[in-house]
Write a structure and sequence with these properties.
Blueprint (H helix, E strand, L loop, with lengths): L9 H10 L19 E5 L2 H11 L3 E5 L14 H9 L2 E4 L5 H9 L4 E4 L46 H18 L4 H25 L7 E4 L5 H6 L3 E4 L11 H14 L3 E4 L6 H10 L2 E4 L15 H16 L3
Parallel strand pairs: 1-2, 1-3, 3-4, 5-6, 5-7, 7-8
Helix pairs in contact: 1-3, 2-5, 2-6, 5-6, 6-10
């Protein structure tokens, strides 16, 4: 049974009646939050849902607010999802990435609210990581709706650094233990197993990128600042932290110069965002294109079926692009 029962508001009941009450992603079973007999967790998007599933194991029922293939930055919360939050035992999210999620969870009466951004130190990573002030900071991190995707000035893409993701995992494990003490021992065990796997992944990146021809890689979306910093790389992004931001002509010209000076071979794009800008830049500079996946969601186009498989595919792509031996 649910760890904690509560009554649904009249608004939520209306939303349920009008829209139906099903799960939202393939990562959850067909039972709706509130009647699963398990610890019900609503996760904001895939990296949070993955943590909840690995840590919760058989004791949790996880649904994600972001559907597979949906760009997380673009998510707008529906009435059905608001109702689902009210019936859940916990919400796991990353404040600063999805403004509509932040607002919905902030207004929800749910007792256990786990903000992954508070479980590790956020840092600032701009569009022009690594090349300092000479490249300017003309790239705002707001989309056309005025949404600011930073978390108090910090880059939210912490899951792309296995070390930081492990820190978040440990915090989520402790939160689950506190909220559902009957299964605390299993949550503790599962957390330790996940952290061990993440440390092993960190080791693969350190070894795999140790000997390389260049430190610089070019992406369409400035999602890889933490990964770059962890392994001594320099990310040069066409756009800012928001993948929908259009680059200026000056920025494109600048990237062409950087590619020539730093021996860049590849322009990376991602599976959930158009590759048009990457291919245009690559065509103008004679570079190739490849996928570097920010693992914001798993789809049929992903190079793997879960976080670890996609991250290892990213490592393979980076090794090729950077001339690692």
């Amino acid at each position: 049974m649910n760890v904690r029962r509560r009554h649904i508001s009249a608004v939520a009941l209306t939303a349920v009646a009008a829209l139906g009450f099903g799960t939202l992603t393939a990562c959850s079973s067909d039972a709706a939050a509130g009647d699963t007999g398990k610890f019900d967790v609503v996760a904001s998007f895939y990296p949070m849902a993955f943590l909840a599933e690995r840590i919760g194991g058989e004791h949790v029922h996880v649904t994600s607010l972001t559907q597979p293939g949906q760009e997380p930055h673009d998510l707008e919360i529906s009435a059905r999802q608001t109702a689902q939050l009210e019936e859940s035992d916990a919400a796991l999210y990353l404040k600063g990435l999805q403004p509509s999620v932040d607002e919905a969870i902030g207004q929800s009466p749910i007792a256990t609210k786990i903000d992954a951004a508070e479980l590790t130190a956020l840092e600032e990573h701009g569009t022009e990581a690594g090349h300092g002030e000479e490249h300017g900071d003309e790239h705002a991190h707001e989309d056309e709706h005025g949404h600011d995707h930073d978390h108090e000035g910090g880059d939210p893409h912490i899951w792309l650094d296995p070390v930081k993701y492990a820190e978040v995992a440990e915090g989520v494990g402790k939160a689950f233990q506190k909220a559902d003490p009957d299964h605390a021992a299993d949550y503790r065990k599962n957390t330790a197993s996940l952290v061990k796997d993440l440390k092993a992944l960190d080791g693969k990146f350190r070894t795999g990128l140790a000997n390389r021809d260049t430190d610089v890689f070019v992406t369409t979306h400035a999602a890889f600042g933490y990964l770059a910093e962890r392994y001594g790389l320099t990310e040069e992004a066409i756009s800012g932290l928001d993948p929908d931001t259009e680059p200026s002509g000056a920025r494109v010209k600048e990237l062409q110069q950087i590619a020539e000076e730093d021996g860049v071979t590849t322009v990376f794009y991602e599976t959930l965002v158009s590759d048009k800008t990457a291919k245009t830049l690559a065509g103008d500079t004679g570079l190739r294109t490849d996928v570097l996946d920010p693992v914001e969601g798993i789809t049929d186009h992903s190079r793997g079926e879960d976080y670890f498989q996609v991250m290892e595919a990213n490592l393979t792509a980076l090794r090729t692009a950077l001339g690692a031996r």
